[in-house]
Amino acid sequence: MITAGKTAASRRRPKYAVIPKLERWRVWTVLGGLMVLFAALIGRALYLQVWNEGFLQDQGDARYRRVLKLEANRGMITDRNGEPLAISTPVQSIWMSPRSMLILPAGQQRAEDWKPANDDELMPLSLDEVKKLETHLQLKSGELLTKLTASRKNSQGKEIKSDFLWVKRHISPADAKKLMAMKIPGVYSQTEYRRYYPAGEVMAHIVGFTDIDGKGQEGFELTREKMLAGKPGSRTVIRDRRGYIVEDVSTIVPPQEGQTLQLSIDRRIQYLAYRELKNMVDSSGAVGGAIVVLDARTGEVLALANAPSYNPNSRAKIDPAHKRNRALTDLYEPGSTMKALTVAMALNADKVTPQTIIQTGGGTMAIGPNMVKDDHAVGAATVETIMQKSSNVGVAKMALMMDRESKWNFYKDVGFGEAPHTGFPGEAAGRIRPWKNWRPIEEATMSFGYGMSVSLMQMARSYQLFAGNGEIHPVTFTKLVAPAPGKQVVTAKTAEQVRKMLEMVTLPGGTATRAQVVGYRVGGKTGTAKKLVDGKYSDTARVGSFVGLAPISNPRLIVAVMVDEPSFAMRYGGLVAAPIFSNVVAGSLRLLGVPPDAPTTNIFLPNTEAEVKEET
Questions:
Q1: Same fold flag, 69-97+126-142+165-262 and 267-612
Q2: Which residue in 88, 189, 284, 336 is the catalytic one?
Q3: Over the Cα atoms of the chain, what is R_g?
Q4: If DSSP states are collapsed to H, E and C, what string results for 12-57?
Q5: Residues near 181 by Cβ (< 8 Å), separated by ≥ 6?
Q6: What is the domain class of 267-612 according to CATH?
Q7: N or C: which end of the chain has fewer CB within 10 A?
């Protein structure tokens, strides 16, 4: 029994226990494989966290981090009395992210209780909501839908939509508030600043304008861009894909506001100047015109206007031709307004005195094969009478008494042939040929304003000689505390003598009695110059001009007027420019509180047609 029991137990249990055992090479293969994978993971981690960290960080930032620009409020531009000429007002701009939008098919509406399940879900937008946006923002039908569905190809050739789209810029805060109250998904507003010009077209050529991004494009908005713009601030944030700000990730850098620019312009005088110029240009059928008003004591520009003008508040409707600042950029031959400077040269060089008799004969003078003519002869006349009657022959004879180099130096001293350096864009320098190349006939014609080109600003500046003691000051658009040092060009005695002759031009017998002002003594010189057309002087196209001082007893204002191509009947400076001078001076002197220096009965009857006709 016992033996049998052992035999049964032996059958149930194997004689030897078999223990599974891996081959050694298999163990090392598995272990080596694991080590390689582990090393690869460590290498990849080092590559991503050390060598490629910057690139990956930039990619992450590009998707979520945003640096928001905090706009600086652009500085104001004011006139000399602090009246605003350019100000910035806060407005709202509407934007969307087309890549985040899902345009629903026609007839399908977004559920009113729709909420995004996650950051990756596109925001549904129905066609009805698109139409509402277009109507509220006054966009063309279908314009917004086209922009939202537009796509472009990326570097891999895949069609993608834009992340950012300006829907409408610079709308009023009230309109933006109504729009945002609609709670249309994916529509956002952003605060910006829009430039506003209270004086409109009256001040357009001085102040200029900015583009929609607030960058100066013309005038002092352009030349003083850095001063006015200030420095924008910044705010770094993390945004989710729907545009919501999750958190700020750095300290906010506040913007530095732009500085205020105070000009020398007097807004009241500017309005007078523009009104009178525009009325005359319109009534005379002229192509255009310009006027400059200077403070005779300091050289400050009190007014500068051009016609036609433009409204800087309506950028889309600006005619490029109307942006020309004729007073500074357009050149013309000054005609008889140059005679005052020629007489001043001769007086200052002691070649003549005011009472010197000059024989003009029958009103003609031969210079080689050329002829200088007067339309109406004055015979033997004093220097004063030659100025009053505007004799070409008389001033030509005075000019030929002096050497060429002296005359050239005089022209340079008064600023001809170089830009006036007012800080304004596009200033013209004019043209005077080198004196060594002058021929006698050119010396003669330059004495009465032909054969040279100047700007109206240069002519206004040159008449400073007669407003004071023979000094000329720099012209400036910036309000001064004290006058800048001047340059002595002629003696005080010469300035006084010419000033007396300029007054005679506005008295009976002169060419500019229409320049007279009630209660004030004034003086100036008319000019009527033929225009060059296709290389030849035109028989019909003229530039009528006048440059004058007021009051003549103690000049406070210098006013220069130029009217380009008035109708032939109004072509003379005494008819088209002198009346503008009279009206502007009358209003300006009263605004400045300058006491009258003449009785109110000082006005004489207008001059006859024959007297108006200065030599051309």
A1: no
A2: 336
A3: 40
A4: HCCCCCCCCCCCHHHHHHHHHHHHHHHHHHHHHHHHHHHHCHHHHH
A5: none
A6: alpha beta
A7: N
- Bridge pairing between strands 188-196 and 159-160: unpaired
116-134: per-residue pLDDT in tens?
Answer: 666 666 778 888 888 888 8
Sign, CA torsion 182/187/193/196: negative
| Helix (H/G/I), strand (E/B), else coil: 521 | coil
Please say whether the beta carbons of 264 and 196 come within 8 A.
no
CB-CB contact of 231 with 201 (8 Å):
no
Cβ–Cβ < 8 Å for 246, 189: no
CATH fold of 69-97+126-142+165-262 reads Penicillin-binding protein 2a (Domain 2) (3.90.1310)
Q: Could you give the CA distance from residue 396 to residue 448 in angstroms, rounded to a whole number? A: 7
Round to whole Å and give the CA distance between 67 and 65.
Answer: 7
| Separation CA 384–CA 501 (nearest Å) | 6
Residues whose CB falls within 8 Å of the CB of residue 148, separated by 6 or more in sequence, listed in order: 96, 98, 101, 103, 125, 130, 161, 165
Encoded tokens for 359: 């024989």
Query: Which residue type is seen at 155?
Result: S
- Told to judge if 336 belongs to the known catalytic residues of this protein, a careful annotator would answer yes
All structural domains of the chain with their residue ranges: 69-97+126-142+165-262, 267-612
Give the amino acid at 582: S
SS3 333: coil
Nearest C-alpha neighbor of 125 from the set 106, 139, 151, 142: 106
Over residues 504-548, the pLDDT tens digits come to 999 988 889 999 999 999 999 999 999 988 888 888 899 999 999
